Amino acid sequence: MKQRIKTRFTEFFNVSHPIMLAPMDQISGGNLAAAVSRAGGLGMIGGGYGNREWLKTVFSETHDESVGVGFITWSLMRQPELVDFSLDQKPVAFMVSFGDSEIPVAAAKARNIPTIWQIQTLDMAKQALDAGVDVLVVQGQEAGGHGMSRGLISLLPAVRDLAGKDQIIVAAGGIADGRGLAGALSLGADGVMPGTRFWASKEANGSDAAKAQLVKARGDDTLRSKVFDIARGVDWPWHFTGRVVANQFSNQWHNNIDELQRDVETEQQRYLTSQMDDFNIRVVIGGECLDNIHSIDSAETIINNMVDEAANILERMVNYLVP
Ligand SMILES: Cc1cc2nc3c(=O)[nH]c(=O)nc-3n(C[C@H](O)[C@H](O)[C@H](O)COP(=O)(O)O)c2cc1C
Fold this sequence. Notes:
By secondary structure, the chain is an alpha/beta fold. The chain is 42% helix and 13% strand.
């Protein structure tokens, strides 16, 4: 589809549309990342917690399409050799989230690879700016997956004021269609980074049964919780919670975290031995924008619809002005 919206983001990455794929652990594999790039966005591989074999596989799946890669910093830095390994794959962008990221950002900058840092508070934005990051992703609490408690609608303009007019800023959290894209541009973003919307795509890794849960669930069904990190035995820093679709397991433990931790071995065993498609127990990660997702579509369809709808809204907005 032809370009309809030009921003600092599209110019900087030389892409047609101001949309990047969230680097979702396990979900954003090579097929999805390549499909987003082919459709004119910025495809990102989910490097997740860091796993060399997974990285090899997903980079080879892209068949040399230009893609970036993103990691969960606190986990990546437990195996710092993966920074150089992933930079050797020549990603078009290197993204970090969740933790002090000065070291991997400096490594990418030394190789002239554009850097992206996802933040959840103003203090984190300042830290990322001090590290000289090229692109700030501002994540609101609406987001699927890990994050914090600030809503995007006030955090995004505050980060714009802090960062100044020349900084490239991308909005994340709650954006599933062109209304979200147009709104984010109005609030000061140069682009958007949907996660949940691309998880509900044909090219995303993951079972059809899990994707069907995404179409069925509503934003009201989601909550931010520690339950599934404890159940999966992943030691996330305590201030990050994960937004997920609530189920029987989270209903049982969300308000009983102390008790869950007292009986942690039994409950971890119960979780890890459950069937993958037993969604009464197994987590389905998704954000508040599930309200606005009604079908599993190709990445190209998602991007084209989002851009068309946003461009049409921006054209119509002029009608609000009193001549
Ligand atoms: C299934 C899923 C997995 C995610 N995994 C990661 C991850 O591994 N690393 C990361 O930086 N963010 C991850 N995120 C968060 C995204 O980067 C992004 O902030 C979020 O998806 C944006 O909100 P949205 O889901 O409402 O679009 C994940 C999100 C989802 C939905």
